[in-house]
Amino acid sequence: MYNNCLNRSKARKRGKCLKNIFAAAEQFIPSGKVVDIREYGHGNINNTYLVTVDVTGEDHFILQRINTQVFRRPELVMLNMSVATGHAIMRLRQMQLREGRRWEVPRVLMARDGRDHWLDPEGSFWRAVSFIEAAKSFDTIQDIGHAREVGYALGMFHTLLSDLPPDRLADTLEGFHITPRYIRHYDEVLLKYRGAKSPEVNYCLQFVSSRSAWAHLLEIAKQQGILDLRPIHGDPKVNNILMDTADGRAIGIVDLDTVKPGLVHYDIGDCLRSGCNPMGEETVQWEGVRFDPDLCRAVLQGYLEMAKGFLTVNDFEYLYDSIRLIAFELGLRFFTDFLEGNVYFKVRSPEHNLARALVQFRLTESIEEQEKTIRGIIRDLR
After folding, report:
1. What is the distance between the terminal CA atoms of the chain, rounded to a whole angstrom?
2. CB-neighbour burial class of residue 349 (10 A; exposed 0-12, middle 13-18, buried 19+)
3. φ and ψ at 62, to 5 degrees?
4. Domain 13-130 adopts which CATH fold?
């Protein structure tokens, strides 16, 4: 009897959830009806759905419920998206793309009440963006050609926003990619941690301890005026870059929640961290993780094809450091979340974030082991 009641309770909760999702989707279609909704992508923060409607023209769009525990000012997230996509579309019209190339910028869709979002009766924050057709993404880089296109995509994104004053964008995630802040938070969490000290936990503890002082490098360069703020994507990992299903070339970059002022080094480091680990960040075989310098060269070739014109001498000087730092930083964030009880990232098990941290720390070690090679690649491509 208890199990039957529990199952009925779960069914009611699921039914209510589906009803809320359909109600939200209907707010973003001026006519017609919603035909189908399914979960979409592998995001760790927001809930994302692909919506199919029975209208001519745009048959699909992306619906998202924003995690307001992470994005505490979601209206500013939408402001940044509107400013950035509007500017990118304007710049794109002025550019001469190479023959056969296409580039798509996601458009913010308005709700029936004319706003760029909808609040449901329970206070959930929903938004919709256009769906880019004939495109797919991958969790890991498939080959050298794909790597070059991943770099091209980030370079195109930075180029389109390179003349957008960063002060036109709100800082929607204060402290995001500010590694010293993550170190301070880690220290606070560690003081309260009372969990078991497994060999994996001890490895992570030692790893962070031996690198904490070096983690201030990019922030010091920013404070000294050596590196400048620019508009950044904030999360340009491989599966946020869309590839044309017809010719395999990059056609867009999505997941624009984290667009904000920052150092382009955060994006470059994150892109290379994500792209040059062939085993992917969810592998359980963390000891075999390595940073692939051939993929690194290809990504940077594609990136610099578009971005070389606005990078400064100082920007190049800190490229290696950004690759190493962002891998370490993500590992630190995963490990801190594990110590804190998994309160930030979605997890499938209590030790999921610990496993993720091990992958990023091993990747950092591999980057350090190949410092001379990576610096040589950067020098060759300048």
Report:
1. 70
2. exposed
3. -95, 130
4. Phosphorylase Kinase; domain 1 (3.30.200)
The CA-atom distances, in angstroms, between 131 and each of 63, 195, 302 are 9, 44, 25
User: What residue ranges do the domains of the chain occupy?
Assistant: 13-130, 135-381
Point out which residues pair with 127 in neighbouring strands. 64
Segment 11-21, tens digit of pLDDT: 455 555 778 89
Residue 280 · residue 295 · CB < 8 Å: no
CB within 8 A of 57, min separation 6: which ones?
none
Residues 6 or more apart whose CB falls under 8 angstroms from that of 170 comprise: 73, 76, 79, 80, 260
DSSP notation for 339-370: HHTS-SS--SSTTHHHHHHHHHHHHHHHHHHT
**pTM for the whole thing?**
0.89
| Selection from 297, 253, 256, 259 nearest residue 275 by Cα | 297
Q: What would the pLDDT profile of 199-221 be if each residue is shown by its tens digit? A: 999 999 999 999 999 999 999 99
Contact 334, 356 (CB under 8 A): yes
Fold type of domain 135-381 = Aminoglycoside 3'-phosphotransferase; Chain: A, domain 2 (3.90.1200)
Name 283's bridge partners.
none
Instruction: Count Cβ atoms within 10 A of the Cβ of residue 101 and give its class: 0-12 exposed, 13-18 middle, 19 or more buried.
Output: middle
pLDDT per residue as tens digits for the range 145-181 = 999 999 999 999 999 999 999 999 999 988 889 999 9
Which helix or strand (DSSP H or E) is residue 228 part of?
A: none
d(CA 354, CA 321): 24
Torsion of CA 353, 358, 361, 367, to 10 degrees: -120
Q: How many distinct helices (H) and strands (E) make up the chain?
A: 12, 11
Diameter of the chain by CA atoms? 71
Question: pLDDT confidence of 232, banded at 50, 70, 90?
Answer: very high
